[in-house]
Every structure is written in C-alpha cells, then in structure tokens.
Amino acid sequence: MPNQKYFQYVRKDRLPNVWCPGCGNGIIMKSFIEAAGNLGLDKNKVAVVSGIGCSSRVTGYLDFNTLHTLHGRAIPFATGVKLARPDLEVVVMGGDGDMLAIGGNHFIHACRRNMDLTVILFNNTIYGMTGGQYSPTTPHEAIASTAPYGNLENNFDPVKMAISSGATYVARSTVYHYTQSVKYIEEAIKHKGMSVVEIVSNCHTYFGRYNGMSKPAQFMEYFKKSTVTLSKAKTMSEEELKGKIIIGEFHNDESRKTYLELYEELSEQLGGVAK
Amino acid sequence: MPTKLAITGAAAVAHAMRQINPDVVAAYPITPQTPIVEYFAQFVADGVVDTVMVPVESEHSAMSAVVGSAAAGARTMTATAANGLALMFEIVYIAASMRLPIVMPIVNRALSGPINIHGDHSDAYAVRDAGWIQLMSENSQEAYDLTIIATKLAEREEVLTPAMVNLDGFITSHGVEGVEILDDEVVKDFVGQWEPKYPLLDVDNPITHGPLDLFDYYFEHHRQQQEGLKNAYKALPEVFAEYEKISGRKYDFLDLYKMEDAEYVMVVMNSAASTAKYVVDELREKGIKAGLIKPWVFTPFPKKEFLEALDGRKAVVVLDRAMSFGKEAPLYSLVKSALYEAKERPMIGSYVYGLGGRDVTPAMLHIPFEEAMKGELDPNEERYLGLKE
Ligand SMILES: Cc1ncc(C[n+]2csc(CCOP(=O)(O)OP(=O)(O)O)c2C)c(N)n1
Ligand code: SF4
Ligand SMILES: [Mg+2]
Questions:
Q1: Domain match, B220 and B349 both
Q2: How high is the ipTM of this complex?
Q3: Do B29 and A131 count as a contact with CB atoms less than 8 A apart?
Q4: What is the CATH number of the domain that holds B283?
Q5: Smaller CB count within 10 Å for chain B: N or C?
Q6: B176-181 and B3-8: which strand pairing?
Q7: pLDDT at B241 over 80
Q8: Mutation test of ligand 1: which of A98, A134, A207 has the most ligand atoms closer than 8 Å to its C-beta?
C-alpha cells in the first residue's frame, strides 16, 4: 500500500509523470514530499514555485499551492508570493539552467536579500528539457550538444555562489544520498532566511548519453563513489578533492535578519502597521 | 547543381546559415528553435563554417551579443521562438534602431501563458512594430530560400535593417520535406561579402553606436528607420528577381494562388496556406471561384499589393493565428485597412484559428468560404475556427 502520508501531497491524477524512467527528478520530488511529511506541513500553507525545465514540471505533480512560471523567473515570482503572504512557506524548485543561467541574477539577489525562501536546485548539469545543451554547472570539458568537443567554459559551484551571495542555509546532496537530501530539505524549510539545497542529479538521457553514463544506475554508482562528506573533505587536499562531489551542510546562520524582518522593523519604526 | 535533401525545416534553415557563413552566432535554446542551432553547432564543430558560436545564458544575452558583434562589423545571426523572442524584446528594438542587418529565423510558437510550445503567430505579431523586416514561409523550402533572401536584403546599404524569417513551429521546423539546396558557391556569391560601412572596430574612423538621443534627434532617427523599410519595399522585387535567377524559384510580396478569376479569397500566413490551397482546389472542382493569398512579406506590409489583389472580389476572409486582445486580429486589421481605397470593396470577415498549435483541418477552412458564399460575413465580428465553445 502506498503511504497515505505521501499521497496527500501528490496530484495523483497527473501521474505518471513525463520524466524519463530513472530520472533523478522523481527522487528529488520524493525527498521533498518526505521532508514535508516529516515536518507535518499543511499543504495549504505551502507555496511551491518553479520555472521551466524538466525539473520545473514538478509543480504539476505536487499538491500544494503551486505556480509554474517562466524560464528563469521562479525566484522573483516566489519573492512576490512571500511578500504578499509572509505566513506561507515558499519553496522554489528548478534546474541549473533555470536558476543559474537565464535566472542566475535572481538567484544571487535573493541570497543577498536573505529572502525567506527555500530553494531546491535540481542540478543535473545540463539543460535537460531542450536537449542537452551545456549549462553553467556542466563541468569543464564535459560533452554536451552545444559542446561536441567538450565544454570550453568553467562551471559555477552553486554552494559557493549561494554562500558568497548571502544565503544563510546552504547544503548539498545527491540523488543517491536520499536520506541526507530529506534531512537538508527539512532543515532548509525550518530555517529562517534564504536556504539553498543543491541536489546533484542525473539526466542520463542527455548528460549521461554524451558522457558515457546512459543508464541511471551508472549515475548512482558514480554518486556513491565520487561523493565525500564535508567533514571528510576538510581533511583532504585540493588534489584529492578533484572530481569529487562534496555533500553536507555548508552554512547555517540564523543570526542575520531576513528581508522581511528588516522590512517590518523599519515599518514599525516609521509608524506603519506591523503585520 | 542544386541537391535535393529530405530534411526538416530546421535543418533547411541551418543549411542556409551554413552557406551564408555568418561571422558570429549567439543563441540560447528554446523549443522549437533548438534543432536549427543544434544543426548549426554541428557545422561549427565540423569546421565547415568560419563562425564563432557562443551559447550564451539567455536570449536577452543572445540578442545583446548579436548586436555587439554586428556593431563591431560582423555578419551576425541568431534564432529564437516565442518566449525567447519576448525576452529579447528590448534589444530587438535596439538592433533595428542601430541599423544592424542581423538575420534571425523565428520558429513561430505561442507566447505564454498558459505555457504552450506549439505553433502560432503571437510571437511574430508581438514584434511587428520593432522595425525589423518580417518574411513568412509556408514550408521548409521557403524557409531556406527566405533566409538567404533576407541576408541579401537586410545588408543593402539603403536598407540596413534587420530581418526575421518566420517558419511555423513543429509543422515546418520538425516536419521532413524535400528541400532543394543551392550550391554553396552560388549562395556565397549571391549574399556576397558583408562590408559594414560603420564598424565599431574601424580605429581610424572611430564612431559611436547607440548614444543618448533625446528630443534633439530621436524623432529623425525613427523617421530614417521608416525610410529603411520603404527602401526594403522598393528593393524586394529586385532581390526576388536576382534570387529567381540563381534558384528558379519565384517570390513576390504575395503568393497568389488561383487568384486570376477568384471571387472568394482566403488570406492566410505560413503553413496553414498549404491546407488552404488544398481547400481552394476542392472548391474549384465544384466550380466555385475560390483563391488564396499568402503574404511572403509581412513587414514592410504590402498594402498596395493587397489592394490590387482584392479590389473588386466578392468576399475576403482573413485568417489570423493569434489574437490581438481588445482589437481586431493583426493581419485582418491590416488587410482591412489596405482596402480603404478599394473601388469595389469586397465583403470581409475575420477568423482566428490554430492558437497554441490547435490542428487546422480542411473541414475547418471550408467554413469561412461557406460563410462568405452565403453572404454571412460581418466585418465587425471575430470568428473562431476549431474552438471548443
Ligand atoms: C525565455 C525562454 N528561453 C528558453 C526556453 C527554453 N527552455 C526551456 S527549459 C530550458 C532549460 C532547462 O534546463 P534546466 O533549467 O537545467 O532544467 P532541466 O530540464 O535540466 O531540469 C530551456 C532553455 C524557455 N522556456 N524560455
Ligand atoms: S531529459 Fe534528462 S532531466 Fe529530462 S526527464 Fe529525461 S532524464 Fe530527466
Ligand atoms: Mg538542468
């Protein structure tokens, strides 16, 4: 019997989903559902916002208040939702292309403002939906449809980017590390301020096929083999860390005020109506 | 010798781009434009073109990079669709005002929202006032031909205006058809070497592009853009004639189908015209004098040609694959206005069809003809084909 606790958060009539069998998107969606279940979230008190991409289709399946927006614009839409309804838990989900390429500017500015959002980045290091063009997280020299001889460009490290831009909770996991993903998402939702959880995922259909990993299981092997925890990584040299995915909670700081807190403080100071 | 290939419209356009051999292509993927850029990226990777290609991080950046490289003096191209074009919007205007002869295939797709990836003309219409030449294609062959024609036209000194070549999303871009590809040398000679008159990189004659232009000269510059499009209108017959010489294919402002004695005329753009031609044939078999007009050129709008073609006909039905909310449909309102000076004004009717890729069937296209023949057209009513209501 499927667990009812999970099914309350899913639009069953929208299933099966459009994703390729074995796509990491399903695992990330389930991680979120489990985190929501563990926290006992009231689905009417949560808004999930996504942009455009394979990953962004997630808002079609999740039974919360959902907003499927434009490519790259999920974060500003979510900012609007949060400003209008500070009582809602606002979660943003989407891809590396969506949030770091076309929408990269919004990502850094939401971090800078410490907007109280939970961003779950589905990082499959490729534009899945449009057919495997390289994204800002595609590793240097990896093959993509727009880089048949290898990617000339260097990739972003979303974790470093989020921290240096001002996010106050930042973690990374992979789709292989399901338990950790659930835990980080829970922490991110509970966290006051801008939280970013990067989940490294597989697009075996494009990234995999181009780079010798056309089966989802190969990604699982790879994530298992190439991942080191943050605490372990601290003991390793830069040379040893080459090609490794570091997972863990990188940053957790609730001392900084969120944008809304500062806004309300100012509003009170000026004699405005406190919410 | 031209070669005939069984390829998609996207591949046909990519071949035209390969033969035009632009110096710079900057693009961002969007369905259904993606295969154009993918095929072209392969040509770049294989070293068969001299192009530097930049897969930038958004269409806003793509059009900006394209404007930058064109201003620097490069022959520059990009391609997009729907929301990609919408995101380019502010720079689309700038490309025209800076008089940069960029050529951009647009794979027509419905603008969001709600999100839709299939073909309609809301994207083409959204930029109709941006100052670009807009050519329209019915099939892959036309998309190929018009891409080459657009390059020649846009770069003419008296024109210097960017050009969009529209082809229908999926139907043309992804459908496989026989396409005749000219010899590389023939196309190369036809488009010639691009020699910009005012490149940014001419260090002996430094110039500036795009400076602040307030109430002193902004108006005059726009007046000049209008002149550029008037010149494009004048140059088009010559460019079409030159193209006919190398290809044997004849283009004009309007594709007139069975129009000599036509009493009932349908006006429709792009791929639906193929279905409409089939319907015209069916009506002709029944002895009904039906005809069809399909504009190959949307901007500069061939007003005089429409007037000449439609004056004195019994009825005209204009089909639009997009709406203009709160106003008459774009093609309809333009055709209607072209008829202002008609000596014998035909009855006229407006039909909106195929939004968001809704299928267009022959049965659907019979309806406007039937209503025209029954004298049931109302010039002030917008009607819908294939709508679930
Ligand atoms: C303005 C605009 N440009 C381009 C697109 C086409 N497009 C849709 S999804 C996508 C990339 C998706 O990549 P990512 O965000 O990494 O998501 P994934 O599919 O990999 O989950 C692109 C380029 C679009 N929808 N809108
Ligand atoms: S294309 Fe890639 S990202 Fe998209 S559903 Fe398939 S595996 Fe997942
Ligand atoms: Mg991606």
A1: no
A2: 0.93
A3: yes
A4: 3.40.50.920
A5: C
A6: antiparallel
A7: yes
A8: A98
